[in-house]
Amino acid sequence: MIHEKGNRLLDQLERRFGRLALPRMLHWIIGFQVMCFVLTIVNEEFPIWLVHDSNLIFQGQVWRLVSWLFLPVSLNPFFFAITVMFMLFVSNSIEGEWGAFRVNLYLGASALGLALAGLAPFFAGYSLAFGAIFFSGAFLAFATLFPNQIIQLFFIIPIKAKWLGVADAVGLVAIVLTASSPVLMGTLVVLGLTPYLLTFAPGFLDNYRRESTAKVRRHRFETETTSVETFHECASCGATEKTHPEREFRVAGDGNEFCDSCRKPL
Q1: Tell me: the pLDDT tens digits for 124-165?
Q2: Fewer C-beta neighbours within 10 Å, C or N terminus of the chain?
Q3: Are residues 161 and 111 in the same domain?
Q4: Cα(186)–Cα(200) distance, integer angstroms
Q5: CA distances from 229 to 16, 85, 104, 126, 158 (A)
Q6: How far apart are the C-alpha atoms of 87 and 67, rounded to whole Å?
Q7: Are residues 19 and 83 in the same domain?
């Protein structure tokens, strides 16, 4: 659904820089999450060294610009295992559709936008939401590319990816509305989802325009079809041979036409 101009630009960039792409980028991120999950079990204070903290970054702990990606999405072993397997599936799907280079650009742009935004003092208190926003961007891309893909939720409930995408979007809205500053959190979500919006919004707009044009043309056709003049029309009830094909019409002495239901008996 990327706009045609965007596709041409990406093709040019891929021909020039495609060899630099990291295959299965999301696999690497998830792999580091698994490692950090184990280290967190060993030492529960370990995540403190991974959190994006602008003050500490400016003091020289620059790894925090990236390490927030490796924070485990959950410390519950069951939910963490399900999330890992699901995100590996998402990674394989979108990379199979786009290729490594475009996935690198998509995920890299989202991570970079969030990391740089977190350097601003007013976003300092929202760094723990970075991971949720980043992985939502990856999943929303999957749900948009494969809307009818059946997902076995918790290995039991079959549900289409597009409905999980809607649920994910609703979750992001809930995060925004329950934040201490919905405006700041909303801005952060938009920044993190900018690659998604740039990738898919033009296609959504094109589809909307096509559907709107089709509806107008369909309405015009139906109007023209129903407004065609009829040969018979009852002067009493307005029935025509189109609206009541079973009736018979006769012309009275005064020149008006009446259907057999309205004609006065002789």
Answers
A1: 778 888 988 999 999 999 999 999 988 877 667 888 989 989
A2: C
A3: yes
A4: 19
A5: 64, 65, 62, 67, 53
A6: 18
A7: yes
